[in-house]
Amino acid sequence: MAAHNALKAVSLTHVRYQRGDRLGLFLAWVSLVPVFISLGGFVSHFIFRRELQSMFFALGLVVSQFINELIKKSVQQARPETCALLEMCDSHGWPSSHSQYMFFFAVYFTLLTCKGIGGIWNVRTKWAALFLPWSLAVLTMYSRVYLGYHTVAQVFAGASLGIFLGGVWFWLVNSKLFCYFPLIEESAFGRFFYVKDTSHISDVLKFEYDNARAARKNMAARKAMATKTS
After folding, report:
1. pLDDT tens-place values along the chain, 230 residues long
2. CA quadruple 145, 148, 152, 156: dihedral, nearest 10
């Protein structure tokens, strides 16, 4: 009988922790934050918002993870011995992709917020809004070590690379690619998917709120006019 190749699982949400360890359970969920951001955040944001800034934000995360895989295959540093007990150590560990993802996200989100791009946060809520992504980034980094998937050096390498790539990608998008946003909006792709850029609007929430109210009032006025003339 021919020998079978070793099986490999799709481990998108397969995170192990010690039974009865409540901190481990919490950190296992924290370790899944990149999945929640990608599937729940960017996918839903594209469906309902179609913002170019968010699209390039997500594209940057994809590029960052591609670079992470290239480095892992080149360096081929093993994960810690504790990872063998988890039966999930069929990939290399340096640098940590989870840490890289979260720190890229935190840096890009911070630069967007501090630059006021999109106008979502005002001055009073801006700094409070920045607390969450950085807290999640640090917790994710800690969770990968606590759960045994990475060494301290591997998560710090991922965090450092994520910070660097997040800053570079933000500069590239908003200094070099930003001028092409109007062309993308007016392209066949942009018109078909209703892609837009609201970076030039100082307060997006207020702008959309005011326009929604104005549209409702105009509709009510047209209905009233039609009733009078009928």
Report:
1. 445 555 454 555 567 777 887 887 888 888 888 888 877 778 887 888 888 888 899 999 999 999 999 998 888 887 877 776 666 666 778 898 889 999 999 999 988 887 766 555 555 566 777 788 899 999 999 998 888 888 899 999 999 999 999 999 999 999 999 889 999 989 999 899 888 888 877 777 778 788 888 988 888 888 888 877 76
2. -60
